[in-house]
Amino acid sequence: MIQENLLRRIYYKLPPQLRLLARRLVYLPKDIFRKRNQLVPPEGLIYTGRGDFLKVGRYWLDRFVNDGGLQPDHSVLDIGSGIGRMALPLTQYLSSGKYEGFDAVFQGVKWCRDNIQKKYPNFNFKYIDLNNDLYKSSGIDATRYRFDYPDHSFDFIFAISVFTHMIDTEVDNYIKEASRVIKQGGKLFATFFIVDEDYSPANQRFSFPYDRGHYLLMDVRVRSANVAYRLSYIRRLAEHYGFSVELTEKGYWQNEAQQENNDFQDVIILKKH
Ligand SMILES: C[S@@+](CC[C@H](N)C(=O)[O-])C[C@H]1O[C@@H](n2cnc3c(N)ncnc32)[C@H](O)[C@@H]1O
């Protein structure tokens, strides 16, 4: 546990570009010498989270269908599309639907364009130079970014492990924008770190010691490293922007036993009315 926290602290001390480069270098020997599934990016490029790339994507696709009501003909928006972990399984599901994804990290979007968009014309990825101090040292302020899509154009929107790396004013803007581009009755499926009103960070492997009221930070120098929210705040935002809360489900990040159907992060599903 001490080692994991220490490694995390060292990682956050690196400048953002070096964090991506460090990963590339650590995995380089493996990426050169080990045969890999051509659908999956080299490990050194997967900056978006741990676990089996294909299995994690399939897990979330099942959740989108079973809990979020995703249909094969839906028009889908992936906020923070990363390096295609969610998009890849969707290529086998969205038969007559269409997919749009955008992200702030160029290397992820480039991989998706070269390896997914070229083969699947109903998939489109945009690189938007948004600032996020975990990944970048410059870029557009996400609190003012207007999503580059028309009003009411999506049936289903998701953000997996994205609002967990965004501060409160950015999340506020993204829920507002999601509300603008989603159709009436559409679902926004997102993951968060949600803490109780009386949350105390003591003795936890994965904790948020910097309490800012309705949100909490894991690290003060890299504010987007990991961000937690109080449920009352997310509920307020959702209701303010015309959503009702359909489901809140705890993940196991707070050391709860892992259930068959839950993940590390907490899940919230919102429905636009
Ligand atoms: C942990 S990764 C998850 C990526 C992807 N959703 C997945 O689950 O594979 C977080 C992603 O959010 C992106 N991101 C961070 N801030 C963003 C913003 N303001 N707008 C869009 N994407 C953002 C990062 O570039 C990164 O790709």
List keywords for this structure.
seven-stranded mixed sheet; alpha/beta; 273 residues; 31% helix; 11 strands; binds S-adenosylmethionine; Rossmann fold; single chain
Brief synopsis:
The longest helix is centred in the N-terminal third of the chain and has 18 residues, at 16-33. Helices cover 31% and strands 21% of the residues. α6 (168-181) links the parallel β4 and β5 (182-192).
Bound small molecules, which ones?
S-adenosylmethionine
**Poorly predicted spans:** none
Pattern of helices and strands? HHHEHEHEEHEEEEEHEE
Number of helices: 7
| Biggest β-sheet: strands ordered side by side in the sheet | 3-2-1-4-5-11-10
- CATH hierarchy, class: Alpha Beta
- The CATH homologous superfamily is named Vaccinia Virus protein VP39
Task: Provide the structure class.
Answer: alpha/beta
Distance between the termini: 44 Å
Please, could you describe this protein's structure?
The protein is an alpha/beta fold and 273 residues long. It starts with a helix and ends with a strand. It has one domain (51-272): Rossmann fold (3-Layer(aba) Sandwich). Strand 4, helix 6 and strand 5 (182-192) form a beta-alpha-beta unit. Helices cover 31% and strands 21% of the residues. The chain has helices spanning 2-13, 16-33, 53-66, 87-90, 106-117, 168-181, 231-240, and strands at residues 75-79, 98-103, 123-127, 154-159, 182-192, 194-195, 210-211, 215-217, 227-230, 243-249, 266-272. The protein binds S-adenosylmethionine (SAM). Residues 48-49, 79-80, 82, 85-86, 103-105, 108, 130, 132, 135, 142, 160-162, 165-166, 170 line the site of S-adenosylmethionine.
